[in-house]
Design a protein that fits this description.
Structural class: alpha/beta
Number of domains: 2
CATH superfamily of the largest domain: Medium-chain alcohol dehydrogenases, catalytic domain
Mean pLDDT: 97
Strand content: 25-35%
Largest sheet: 7 strands, mixed
Order of helices and strands: EEEHEEEEEHHHEHEHEHEHEHEHHEHE
Number of helices: 12
Radius of gyration: 20 Å
Distance between the termini: 16 Å
Helix content: 25-40%
């Protein structure tokens, strides 16, 4: 038996239940691992609440990003060894497996060796954020002197985008609702911070870029504000929408896009990791950044013990955090 988090009904963090469940042996292509730490993601919160595109089959396991040590190998697994420390990447449908558990079974295909020199907390906070934010490098091809607008900049993905933009020689423009987090965002690398409830984003971006506009906007919020983001883009700029945190319909801002020949497109990290060559390139770049120090996972707060997962989720959803929320087992 292993202590495992499941939920039997959709809803808030209080729906997360700690249970003793049988685990068994890993099947073909799977490994069993002792989980050391997990990083929390908004997608998991949406899944638990019933607001994710994939609806849970109840009762549901949960959790798909973290770090642990392999304790058993299933048939056919040859790339890893018992005792090896590995990262679990969120490359599976939610609910098919779940690593919010002291021990878990996962497919070997969603593992990578944990980078040396990183703590468990840092190793649990790498792949979702950097693979998601990698759109500004791989697709937008952000270059020297080009600007990237980064809404929800205090999120783990937002901070990853700031770091990637800076490393590329670009201009990182953090967007946050109020100025409360402005100084913290600047300390974490944002070259400019715009408080969207206090100032006109499009005007500020045009001032920062000497009237050129931004090469891209990387938005997890969606909703009507995409019209403002579109007005802040440079000619042939790209508006990425990688989430729907607003909970409102996201319109297509036709005229701001049409007059400048801009593009609006959806984005999820699986667009990279479902294609082996793209995944390998992104992995190499991210590992280089971690080694060189250009990329540094930011941990907002660490909670201790599997029983702290409901509290940690409540903290994530309070929007107080700057960076990744991690639970250490």
């Amino acid at each position: 038996m292993t202590r495992t988090i499941r939920f039997h009904a959709t809803g808030g963090p209080d729906q997360l239940q700690l249970e003793d469940l049988p685990l068994g042996a890993p099947g073909p292509g799977e490994v069993r691992l002792a989980v050391s730490a997990v990083g929390l993601n908004r997608a998991e919160a949406m899944y638990r609440a019933g607001n994710y595109p994939v609806q849970p089959r109840l009762p549901s396991l949960i959790g798909y990003e973290g770090v642990g040590t392999i304790t058993a190998l299933g048939e056919g697994v040859s790339d890893y060894a018992v005792g090896q420390r590995v990262c679990v990447l969120p490359m599976i449908a939610q609910g098919d497996y779940g690593i919010w558990a002291e021990e878990a079974i996962v497919p070997a295909r969603i593992l990578l060796p944990a980078p040396e020199g990183l703590s468990d907390e840092q190793a649990a906070a790498i792949w979702m954020q950097y693979m998601t934010a990698f759109a500004i490098i791989e697709v937008a091809e952000l270059g020297v002197g080009e600007a990237a607008i980064i809404p929800a900049a205090s999120s783990s993905v937002g901070l990853a985008a700031i770091q990637l933009a800076n490393w590329a020689g670009g201009i990182s423009i953090a967007a946050t609702r109020t100025s409360a987090k402005a100084e913290a965002l600047k300390a974490l690398g944002a070259q400019h911070v715009i408080a969207t409830e206090e100032e006109d984003l499009a005007e500020r971006v045009m001032a920062i870029t000497s009237g050129e506009g931004a090469r891209c906007a990387f938005d997890p919020v969606g909703g009507p504000y995409v019209d403002t983001l579109a007005r802040a883009l440079a000619p042939r700029g790209i508006l990425f929408v990688y989430g729907g945190l607003s909970g409102e319909p996201t319109p297509y801002p036709h005229w701001p896009m049409a007059f400048k020949g801009c593009a609006m497109r959806g984005w999820v990290a699986s667009e990279i990791w479902n294609h082996p060559e793209r995944f390998a390139r992104a992995r190499r770049r991210i590992e280089q950044g971690l080694t060189s120090g250009h990329l540094q996972p930011v941990i907002a707060k660490t909670f201790d013990g599997i029983e702290a997962l409901p509290e940690a989720n409540a903290y994530l959803e309070s929007n107080q955090q700057i960076g990744k929320v991690v639970v250490r087992f």
